[in-house]
Write a structure and sequence with these properties.
The protein has about 260 residues and is of the alpha/beta class. The protein has a single domain (about 5-255), classed as TIM Barrel. It is built from 9 helices and 8 strands. The protein has helices at about 20-30, 45-55, 75-85, 105-125, 135-145, 165-170, 185-190, 225-235, 240-255, and strands spanning about 5-10, 30-35, 60, 90-100, 125-130, 150-155, 175, 200. Helix 8 crosses helix 9 (about 240-255). The radius of gyration is 17 Å and the shape is globular. The structure holds zinc ion (2 copies). One zinc ion binds next to loops.
């Protein structure tokens, strides 16, 4: 029986409004035994909780995405803290820096990111990091705010071999998304075999970033297998062992229980 975890998904977004249940059932049928929803804003928290209450094997993190960093406030922090009282809240994030889009100005992004690293330490929860075109500052903030105390994952890894040593020094995990299947993703593909077996995760980041052969379409958790297959090829291991290893790593990072057997 094949099984895998999608370590980062957005199941409550409008695009799943019509068929969310079907998408989730399809994932289970395809052996996606657990799913972690990533938080991006305050508005989606009640919906994420609803999904996690409804499905035993779906968990969630809460955070303010760098795009939304301009909305960071004391109230936002209180709301994230309140959500952390839920038994299936497993992480703080996604949070970080995105200097590619700059939907919030950089200062606001840094402030919100720092505050969320501190919050993760207060709560004793691992971090889900979103970073794009901002590796240096991201490492700096993680170092200064002592993120090593709680650990975390660089989700949707878009770096190359040059950042591998820094990530190893932090002892963080990396999660690969559909981007690793794209033909123009050479640096990511070159970095993929350089991480330790016990530090790699796979994710869809759905509804975005559908892997080949679905690129450009709506993504969903069952497609995590295409990401896993590519990563298995790059690391020269069997798909089943890559799936099992990344699932074990995801459970260790987010302290998920073993899923119910078939
Ligand atoms: Zn992200
Ligand atoms: Zn995401």
């Amino acid at each position: 029986m094949k099984s895998i975890i999608d370590s980062h998904a957005h199941l409550t977004w409008d695009t799943f409004g019509q068929d969310q249940a079907a998408v989730i059932e399809r994932a289970f049928k395809e052996g996606v035994v657990q799913i972690v929803q990533a938080g991006v804003d305050l508005q989606s928290i009640p919906e994420m909780i609803k999904v996690s209450d409804q499905y035993e094997s779906i968990y969630f993190g809460v955070g303010i995405h760098p795009h939304e960093a301009k909305f960071w406030s004391q109230e936002a922090e209180s709301a994230l803290k309140a959500a952390a009282g839920h038994p299936k809240m497993v992480a703080v994030g996604e949070c970080g820096l995105d200097y590619y889009y700059n939907h919030s100005d950089r200062q606001a992004q840094q402030a919100a990111f720092r505050a969320q690293v501190r919050l993760a330490r207060t709560l004793g929860k691992p971090l889900i990091i979103h970073t794009r075109d901002a590796w240096e500052e991201t490492f700096e903030i993680l170092d200064e705010e002592k993120a090593f105390e709680v650990g975390g994952v660089f989700h949707c890894f878009t770096g190359g071999p040059e950042v591998v040593a820094r990530i190893k020094a932090l002892d963080f995990y990396v999660s690969f998304s559909g981007i690793v299947t794209f033909k123009n993703a050479k640096p990511i593909q070159e970095a993929a075999p350089l991480f330790a077996d016990d530090r790699i995760l796979v994710e869809t980041d759905c509804p975005y970033l559908a892997p080949l052969p679905h690129r450009g379409k709506r993504n969903e958790p069952s497609y995590v297998w295409f990401v896993a297959q590519k990563l298995a090829d790059l690391r020269a291991v069997e798909l089943a062992s890559l799936a099992a290893q990344t699932a074990e790593n995801t459970r260790r990072l987010f302290r998920l229980p073993a899923p119910d057997g078939p």
